[in-house]
Request: fold
Amino acid sequence: MIVNPIAGMGGPVALKGTDGPADVATALRLGGQPLANDRARRALMALAATGPLEIMTAGGLMGEDAVRQAGHRPIVVHHPAASSTSLDTRNAAQEMRDAHCGLILFAGGDGTARDIFGIVEDKALMLGIPTGVKMHSGVFGTTPESAGQLAALCLSQDAIQLQTCEAEIMDRDDRPGTDGRFATRLFGYARTPFERRLIQSAKSTVGHGDDASLEALCAQLAETLTPGCLYILGPGTTTARILHHLGLGGSLLGIDAVRDGRLVGRDLTESDILALLDTGPAKAIVGVIGGQGCLFGRGNQQLGARALARIGRENVIVAASLNKITGLKPARLFVDTGDISLDAVFSGFIPVQIGPGRSVMLRVGG
Reply:
């Protein structure tokens, strides 16, 4: 068990990651709170049916604390410095690799997955508890509980029948492209325990075969926004098209807000969104992450549980291209807001708009 204590802190405060001391300092200044330990504990609680376990881990916030809180016994193989770094993650992974661990369960994001994979390669199974801001890799459970359930399957009597797969390790490229943006690239394939309903796919891009339908849908949505209503637009190219039809420039990777044809908030934090929700009725428009099918909890943590509870499930509009929907394997969506009760509210079928007057019903969860 390895926990990256700073993973995910930047999400609610509109940072695109917390990859170093400067990011952590900024996140704390903006009101960000540590998330990793609690999400790791939730995953480890799913191992309760197996009884108390001895779990090899790193000291303190890098795993020991979560292991104890979940009722298991930690075997500490690495003691990090006061402020843990990616070097501590790699050192802990090396200790576990050398001890011939069969499964490394970790709480973090793509950067953590990349650090561990760089040491372990194919010498052990890797399984991620989703904790980062964006998780493009295919080694993560859909929720902390899903990761814990899959880890429990690895320890069960049926483990010999458990499927494994080669899952993509994706992360932001260290070098920006010609347009100044950082692309996501493949760093390798990790061995991962596999159960379709419990693990997310790697993020994928789709072609533009039904681009005209999506463009027409975005134009229609822009033309039919209710006067006086606040619209919270999630990140991504689909919502960026809506802003384009309104003649507005958004943040693409952030969350923006529109009312009466005006941009009233750009690259919003969770606190910003909650303040705007005090000003009147609101709806949210979100896209679907290609390949994964995630609605909330991957790259849009600013639109968190408190805001979604106030907006209401009935006021969430989901828009996506038909190609993106048909590319989901299996054809279902999921949410991972950090609030289990709110995740349950979003379970069941939800309409996904794919063109003017056209929608498909997709199951959320399960």
The radius of gyration is 20 Å.
